[in-house]
Amino acid sequence: EAQVTQNPRYLITVTGKKLTVTCSQNMNHEYMSWYRQDPGLGLRQIYYSMNVEVTDKGDVPEGYKVSRKEKRNFPLILESPSPNQTSLYFCASSLFSRGTEAFFGQGTRLTVV
Amino acid sequence: AQTVTQSQPEMSVQEAETVTLSCTYDTSESDYYLFWYKQPPSRQMILVIRQEAYKQQNATENRFSVNFQKAAKSFSLKISDSQLGDAAMYFCARGGRQGGSEKLVFGKGTKLTVNP
Questions:
Q1: Which of A67, B35, B46, B63 gives a 20 to 30 Å CA spacing to B102?
Q2: In the predicted model, is pLDDT for residue B27 greater than 80?
Q3: Do B52 and A99 touch (CB under 8 A)?
């Protein structure tokens, strides 16, 4: 089954404790992205990657890191999480082609206390 | 910054009736794609419909259709014969410069309630 898999689905952590949210896709997509969703703000892009070893900042990159060492994986790293990073996070992937849809993971609900 | 605006935070519709969700956007591009995504309570993001700016014909997918007004930069979603399963958050999104989904810019969303 074609899918984007994020782990974990839910995470509660403390301020300053490094964490990684994993994302993997099995569709051989070139593009991968991370978004955060906050009430009243919609989804905002954090980082995106157009291929292996090619990443770029989205609209809200502060406090996040990413890496793309393999085509299928695109982990999101929070090296020192803060409460304002409490949010719902989505990973997405898509083909390098005009008009193609983005396929989203199930989301990760992160709470930083 | 290029933005997408959904002016209706919440909408409601009676089952079997028709509802229209509004979306306007800002862009300096001449060719781009626009999307409507649905997010039910399960949180899954589901593509509802897409529109290429170069195509004058409005996109249609079963009960879902769009009214695309390029000059006005307007992209509204019409849901006909509304069903209880249509209840969800709906997000309008604009595609990236290369015409794909590498960098989607989303509106803030419209919460649709369907009343039986």
A1: B63
A2: yes
A3: yes
CB contact under 8 A, A50 and B102: yes
Question: What integer best gives the mean pLDDT of chain A?
Answer: 95
- Smallest CA-to-CA distance from B113 within B6, B46, B19 is with B19
> CA dihedral in degrees (A42, B21, B43, A27; nearest 10)?
-90
Is residue A85 within 8 Å of A112, Cβ to Cβ?
Answer: yes
Summarised one tens digit per residue, pLDDT across range B76-86 is 999 999 999 99
Which of B45, B46, B51, B97 to probe by mutation at the A interface, max A CB count within 10 Å? Answer: B45
Q: Which of A40, A48, A58 is the closest to B108 by Cβ?
A: A40
In DSSP notation, B62-92 reads: TTEEEEEETTTTEEEEEE-S--GGG-EEEEE
